[in-house]
Amino acid sequence: MKKIISASMVFMLIQFTQNLAQISIISAFPNLTFQQPVDIQNAADGSGRLFVLEQEGIISVFQNDKNTTMKKTFLDIRDKVLSGGEQGLLGLAFDPGYKNNGYFYVDYTTSNPRRTVIARYRVSGYADIADSESEQIILEVEQPYTNHNGGQIAFGPDGYLYISLGDGGSGGDPQNHAQNLASLLGKMLRIDVRNYDSGKKYSIPDDNPLKGNSKNYREEIYAWGLRNVWRFSFDGERKLWAADVGQNALEEINIIESGKNYGWRIMEGLTCYNPSSGCDMTGLTLPVWQYGHNSEGGYSITGGYVYAGSDAPELKGKYIYGDFVSGKIWALELTGQTPVNTLLFSTDYSISTFGVDENGELFFAHYSGRIYKFESNTTGSVNDELKLDYKLHQNYPNPFNPSTTISFEVPKHDGDIVALDVYDILGNKISSLIDYEKLTGSNYISFDGSGLTSGVYYYSMSSGNFRDTRMMVLIK
Q: What are the pLDDT digits (tens) for 406-460?
């Protein structure tokens, strides 16, 4: 199973990934705390302010300055909001024309009956205070259970409002909402809030995939087969990244496209869910990444953003996301046919949301009340020897049959203890390629998958505080 091969024969075949080890997490606003923060937004109005949603129904506003000591209540709708568990004030989106029209939109749950409300408000005569009496309800969707409400809303590059709705809750989508095109639950919606169709406070964009099929389907649907997309975001290339919270075994990341079916409840991640085997995958779009419910991954994914700031240039172009339960934060890069996923941090934080400021700097919230951001520690030239650090590279070839090569680097001149293991898609360890051996420099390991079935596998390297994971595909 393990074989050391010639470095000179393999070196040119390895595509090296960018070094991400020089990043720190810092407290973004040491003087501010929040009550159960669940969203971070900016108004894109040139003011530089940040807005933080508190789950019980408050939006706070403050200056984006690490020394700021004051926050103000922008909006308080606690009297409307049903909060607790996965319910509450969950999403905020500023109209692209906010600087001129003062409109913003919120997503919250309320009661009697339990439902998700998408509503528009406007700012008052004071920039830091919204008009709490200006609510105009845009859309309401009944929620059969207390969980899986989704909650993110955002304007896309096309100017339309995107809304994520979970499958309605309970467990296993008992009413099969996510596959039912007559239901808005388990979907990504897309609506035009600037124009009204008859009887609505919005219209259906002409290129929505189900436009013209209102007799049998909900035309608001943009994509379906989603379990509970808690957080999604657009990148500079107009890609829509959505992190879908899993059921029993797997968390997943999808690139959402119009008219695509992302599989739930037929599949969970890359595996069959209902039925548990032999499911029909025809027409389904698979996730670009998944991780298991285990010590290597986590239990509740929190979607993030593709980094576009300057404080941590090592993260540029990478999708930064985390896990609410395990506290892990990763960087995912889609390069060629194979994603590259790097563990950045293992934290003790309950990561409830990510957000960006007007400059593209990335923040995240600890559910207990603090906001954090990323900062580079790098000094000097990019070729400085001090930048040398642990690296795990993508295997080559990939896909492979039956063998492939995995390479990695250990920077310590006197060596360090290294483990390299292979896992199946459910997180079960199937091979220990390196069992805590002392190594240094560049290393090349051959993995033989002759005894395995075709499918997706992961390999994970650990040494001290360093841990990194890559995906590889065996095709026979």
A: 998 888 766 788 999 998 877 788 999 999 999 888 899 999 999 999 888 889 8
Buried b (16+ CB within 10 A) or exposed e, 71-96: beebbbbeebbbbeebbbbbbbbbbb
Contact 418, 461 (CB under 8 A): yes
Q: Are residues 218 and 363 in the same domain?
A: yes
Last residue in a domain, options 356, 376, 396: 376
Number of domains in the chain: 2
Half-sphere exposure of 278 (CA within 13 A, CB side): 0
Is the separation of the CB atoms in 419 and 382 below 8 Å? no
pLDDT tier, 52 (very low <50, low <70, confident <90, very high otherwise): very high
Closest CA to 411 of 378, 377, 384, 448: 384
Beta-bridge partner residues of 208: none
Interval 262-289: pLDDT, tens: 999 999 999 999 999 999 999 999 999 9
User: For residue 65, which of 43, 47, 53 has the smallest C-alpha distance?
Assistant: 47
CA distance 337 to 254: 15
DSSP, res 16: P
For residue 339, being part of any structural domain is answered with: yes
Q: Is 269 left (phi over 0), alpha (psi -120 to 50) or beta?
A: left
pTM of the model: 0.82
- Is residue 282 situated within a structural domain? yes
Residue 382 belongs to a domain: no
Residue 436 domain boundaries? 2-11+387-474
Per-residue pLDDT tens for 340-362? 898 999 998 999 999 999 999 99
Q: What is the pLDDT of residue 424?
A: 86
pLDDT beyond 60 at 103: yes
CA distances from 204 to 14, 106, 141, 180, 201 (A): 47, 19, 16, 19, 10
Residues 350 and 435 in one domain: no
Contact 371, 29 (CB under 8 A): yes
Q: Is 381 within the bounds of a domain?
A: no
